[in-house]
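Appendix B. Extra example for self-study. Work through it before the problem class; the solution is given directly after the inputs so you can check yourself.
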Amino acid sequence: MRAIVTATLVAALAVAGAEMVFRRSGGLPAVVPGMTRIEYQWKMRRAAERDGVVLYVVGDSRVGWGFAERVFNGEYVRLAGSRHVAAANAGLAAAGIAANMRYILELNAHNPPQAIVLHYSPAAFYYFTNDPGPPIPGLKIQDVLDDRLDARLAEWLWTRGRWQEAARQVAAYLRTKTVAGNANFVHRSSFDDGFVNATLATNFGEPVDPPAYQLGFYRPLIGALRANAREARARRDLVADVVRSAQARGWTIVLVRFPLGGPLRDVEATLPQDLQPRALADALDVPFLDYAADLRTAAFETLDGSHLTPAAARRLAPIVARDLFALLHERLDATARRPPFVP
Amino acid sequence: MVFDSLFFFLTLIPVLALYVSTRATRSRFAKVVLLVYSWIFYAMWSPPFLLLLIGSTVLDYWVAIGLEAWPSHKRQLLVLSLVVEFGLLGFFKYYNFFIATTASAFRAIGVEWAPPLVHVLLPIGISFYTFHCVSYTVDVYRGRIRAERRFLNVALFVAFFPQLVAGPILRAGHFLPQLRETRALRWKDAADGLTLVLFGLFLKAVIADNIAARVAFLFDHWRANGPAATWGAAMLFGVQIYMDFNGYSLIAIGLAQILGFHIPVNFNAPYGAAGFSDFWRRWHISLSTWLRDYLYIPLGGNRRGGARTYANLAVTMLLGGLWHGASLMFVVWGAMHGAYLCAERLAREHVALDLPVPRWLASAALVAVTYVTVSITWIPFRATSAEQCLGMLSRLFHGGVGGDAALARDYAIALAVFGGHCLSRRFDVIAYAQQRAALRFASVTAILLLLYFYAGERSEFIYFQF
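Solution. Structure tokens for the complete assembly:
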């Protein structure tokens, strides 16, 4: 036992040393800025097991950080007087719309038709490629708890499971004797309302200007999309195919856009007309609710010009619930009362 | 619950503390702690199926008591137990397979008829705990052990968390006496157990999980592979499944040892086996001995003449293959092993080889042939379709050889494991490391650091699906 205890102490010292060197050389933790794949799959599976209709709100981190599903559900129950309809935040950071939709459609292959609220962001529709991953067999609550522990540990133990990255960085530091500037998501916050957000930080001691960081990402991206509009249109057509196949199976699809900061909205408005959300809704033949241009919500506060603040997310959800209730309730209520689908 | 999990170890620490502090003075309470934790461990996967586990336990507890109380109804009681246990196993594991196969057979003769498929989940570990329960009732029926009067002991025998979901398969005759006595816990057992747990975690998280993606790549792109890559895929999967399952078994054995129980080893350097019967004395030992004692010997074993012996071997291996899962691929895997065993027996009985080579060379050649032929069987075991299985088997011998650095690394890993197993025929590495403090210190330090820096992306233990 003495050998084991000594070995544990030596290993702990070695880890502490590695952590110190990594931090001194400019290392930062790396956390997933939103739901992890395991959290996402777990949540979607539980949603798919529900009776009634589930409104899957599909999008990238603008949904993941900014859609308060519980507030939405509370308001919808109040309006409908029943729990037949419930929403699930299916926002996955940097996820493409088509892959996200396909996962949900396959998950519900044996269920009655449900509903998808597609959230428009140019990155999600025309650029991002992250996906929910292949279905994890035998996913259980322990995996989710482990995943949460892993996510929390990633904030404290920066080198855990990252030996290659740590070694590269330390080697670069030893070579150049300078700390390279680095910005990363360093802390994740999970909210009871059903959304997750993350904090951005740098390793050079200066505070991050989140709107500038987002504009620094989106300006070149929108420029590239303008320059390669053909590629963006091909991505749009891919989404349109998935939407049509869902509609053919009886699914209800709606397009929405959440509020965002003025400068970013202006940048996104420079996209070609046919890639704008209104034209997209027409192309997909789905209703469109534009909260970025809605007087009730357009001025809602954002964290960084792109993602809503938690308070704004909570204020937006009941408004979305009321609008969707007015738009879809009869259809969704009828769908929810339909007998189960037998393959 | 699974072992390669921070959550598991976090919950285990208070349970261990409670168990250790009460075992000497309140052994019954300590066992209740273990049982409740074992049931929670199981329910973490699917709470409703815990009822199935408890139901099986209750049934066999009463059947065993009944076997002693009503000797004139022994046969009926045993049949009741076997029908229920194998009925549940058959329904959950094989119903859809049976239906799909029947529908295919009807389609082959031009009849479009398919009974309804049932969308049920497979209760995790059902193959393992069914075998526990069956071995208990059969041993009581045969008079080898007495029926246990304390339900707590039977329940803990069936649900003991270290081995509940993926074995090793326990025997009542080995484990129940350990539950009846309260042996003092020793530091040495705890240290040895902890070393095994760490070593098992290393095999699973550092080796198996890190090569899982490469194995998946080789099998997913089998059409593009030539003989070199196909052999590499088969051998690397052999490494993965060995590391995965042996890792799980070592963690189970180590945890049991920390708790003061002994579970026999499940693997003994199987890729160093000289012959197929030797392989099965070294691979998944708890299953192969179970099949020998409860299937092969009751079928007649080798006592009923030559032809019957071969038939018994074939049937045992076929059912052993089917035990792994409801798929024709597992049946093929079992059939291949059955054929190997029959061929080996035939050769031993009828072919007298007197080769002019040293005995060690003949032995080394036998080990190499066994390794290569066993590696071939991993193709049907891992293949997801008959087309893939046949395609890969044919690519073992056809096509351009090719190869790259990644493939060279695959071969290096497989051959390192093979070499290590050959070495283990004469040298017990783990026992050697456990006896020397300096070596134990060095290996535990290295394992802890590798687990911290280099653990692969977590994946389910392969044997959980069985």
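Self-check: The longest helix of chain B spans residues 74-108. If your reasoning did not lead you there, revisit section 3.
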